[in-house]
Amino acid sequence: MKRILMIGTGGTIASSKSREGLVPALTSEQLLRYVPDVSSFCRIDCMQPFSLDSTNLSPQHWLVLARVLRENYDCYDGFVISHGTDTMAYTAAALSYLVQGAKKPIVLTGAQKPICFDSTDSKVNLTDAFCCAASDTLHGVLIVFNGKVILGTRACKTRSKSYEAFSSINYPYLAVLQDGSLLQYIENRYLPAPVFCDRLDEKVALLKLIPGAQAELAALMLERNDALILESFGVGGIPSYDGSDFTGVLERAMHAGKTIVLTTQVQNEGSNAGVYQVGHKIRSCPQILEAFDMTTEAIVGKLMWILGQTHEPQDIHRLFYTPIANDILNYQNHG
């Protein structure tokens, strides 16, 4: 029988009502009481490093989870992390860089409604998560939600209320679950032994462009951070309208050793900055990294991981374009 470690972190799944709204209250042990059937196919130990609404999680909490996984990796066959849905995709992406190439399943799940509610998705999601954590053919960091198994670097929360909260962006679902049975389509790669990392650079900022956005905002964010992700429009471009000096701001930042990443705020199909004149010059500037088919959540996690290791431009460029957990694929078609 497989041995699974359940790691509780709070979130809606563990919440109860208070005068000020839902608040995390239940421990991982208490959550397990609602799904007694999982004991028929796995033995479960519990751990509760913190109990928070996922809105209040920070990169420091990702490092705590990575440390828990590292310290317990050899003792268990799989892991289930119960987590709030709002930032679950960010945590899944970050853990994909902090725990690379794991053969054992590291499964994040949660719910849109607390487990103590009469109408809830919690019990199915939690049961499915343990089923996946006990699998021999699922590997690495995954999100299991509403019967879908999503690669950790490809998940995005795309619905705020319905049970089908998460989508897999620019990548197929790894598997689906139907009535407790796992139907797997893809077996992702793993390493002989996982590579654990314990450093992140939190000074990564994100600026979502709107029509008329001013370059001064980008300058301020670059002054206070080591990297800036620009979420541009469509396939990607840098504004050049009168009164704006985005190009000058970015050039000065790059000379100061800052890292710039261009991505698109369009959720599916990724960027291709070379299509239009507003983006073409980016291709001739190797210091501006283009994210292509990566999710924003993966870009954030990857930059924090990279800058936690190095600030050398050549190393940053190489690491950013080195696929990890299938986080970036389409860059090969635009090299």
User: Widest sheet: strand order?
Assistant: 4-1-5-7-8-9-12-13
Overall geometry comes to: globular
How many helices? The count is: 9
What structural class do you assign from the helix and strand content?
Answer: alpha/beta
Count of individual beta strands? 18
Residue share in helix:
25-40%
Question: What is the succession of H and E elements?
Answer: EEEHEHEHEEHEEEEEEEEHEHEHEHH
Low-pLDDT sequence parts: none
Biggest β-sheet strands, sense, barrel: 8 strands, mixed
- Termini gap: 47 Å
SS strand fraction: 15-25%
Radius of gyration: 20 Å
> What do the pLDDT scores average to?
93
Describe this structure in words.
By secondary structure, the chain is α/β, with parallel strands linked by helices. Helices cover 26% and strands 22% of the residues. It has helices spanning 28-32, 59-72, 88-98, 122-133, 215-224, 246-255, 277-280, 296-309, 313-320, and strands spanning 2-8, 15-16, 23-24, 42-47, 78-82, 99-100, 105-109, 140-145, 148-151, 155-157, 166-168, 175-178, 181-184, 195-196, 204-208, 227-232, 259-264, 288-290. The strands form five sheets. An eight-stranded mixed beta sheet has the order 4-1-5-7-8-9-12-13, with helices on both faces. Strands 15-16-17-18 form a four-stranded parallel beta sheet, with helices on both faces. Strands 2-3 form a two-stranded antiparallel sheet.
Please summarize what this structure is.
The protein has helices spanning 28-32, 59-72, 88-98, 122-133, 215-224, 246-255, 277-280, 296-309, 313-320, and strands spanning 2-8, 15-16, 23-24, 42-47, 78-82, 99-100, 105-109, 140-145, 148-151, 155-157, 166-168, 175-178, 181-184, 195-196, 204-208, 227-232, 259-264, 288-290. It is an alpha/beta fold. α2 (59-72) packs across α3 (88-98) and α3 packs parallel to α8.
